[in-house]
Specification:
- The complex is a heterodimer.
- By secondary structure, chain A is mostly beta strands.
- Chain A has no helices and 11 strands.
- In chain A, strand 7 and strand 8 form a beta hairpin.
- Chain B is an all-beta fold.
């Protein structure tokens, strides 16, 4: 069964460093998303991406964040200068259409020291 | 501000019983509704989607939607200890709100052998 994959599973970084989180969405899906979940809190939407551009973003997704689809399979989230409060699980998701079911990857646990 | 509310639990049921999980949402324009299961430290796993009023059954799971009352529920029949997890309600508010999912805080379900 097709699934979303994410790498790395765990990333530890120093405050102020740049990190890139990688995702491979399900191959025939057209919509891609990033969500995050701070420990013990709700899953929060960050950004959605369709047709090679951001279609929607939340207030969390400020200038420190960017997304890219560098090739036909990968979808990345970059945090330019990490803060302590960026420590969270970051989930990539994909869907085949607007409003359709979103399937989540296993997540990357980001720890900012 | 779109809100999705769930009782945090824990909801404790004996093995073989029916577990009933509830969710309310604030945006009357919401169009797509999803239930995810999340084991501790893992990513959300899609269980059910429902788009129109009424019931939708899939195996031991039944999702119920009442748009007039802005209420979604999930019934789990013949509950098993392996069903013990946090159940997340997620709502997509439709065309004007794009594709983002708004999640509730989850209900922790404990199924006791």
């Amino acid at each position: 069964e097709p699934e979303v994959t994410q790498t790395p599973s765990h990333q530890v970084t120093q405050m102020g460093q740049e990190v890139i989180l990688r995702c491979v969405p399900i191959s025939n899906h057209l919509y891609f998303y990033w969500y995050r979940q701070i420990l013990g809190q709700k899953v929060e939407f960050l950004v959605s991406f369709y047709n090679n551009e951001i279609s929607e973003k939340s207030e969390i997704f400020d200038d420190q964040f960017s997304v890219e689809r560098p090739d036909g399979s990968n979808f990345t989230l970059k945090i330019r200068s990490t803060k302590l409060e960026d420590s969270a699980m970051y989930f990539c998701a994909s869907s085949s259409g607007r409003g359709n079911e979103q399937f989540f990857g296993p997540g990357t646990r980001l720890t900012v020291l | 501000q779109k809100e999705v509310e769930q009782n945090s639990g824990p909801l404790s049921v004996p093995e073989g019983a029916i577990a009933s999980l509830n969710c309310t949402y604030s945006d009357r324009g919401s169009q797509s509704f999803f239930w995810y299961r999340q084991y501790s430290g893992k990513s959300p796993e899609l269980i059910m989607s429902i788009y129109s009023n009424g019931d939708k059954e899939d195996g031991r799971f039944t999702a119920q939607l009442n748009k007039a009352s802005q209420y979604v529920s999930l019934l789990i029949r013949d509950s098993q200890p392996s069903d013990s997890a946090t159940y997340l309600c997620a709502v997509n508010s439709g065309a004007n709100a794009g594709n983002m999912l708004t999640f509730g805080g989850g209900t922790r379900l404990m199924v006791k052998p």
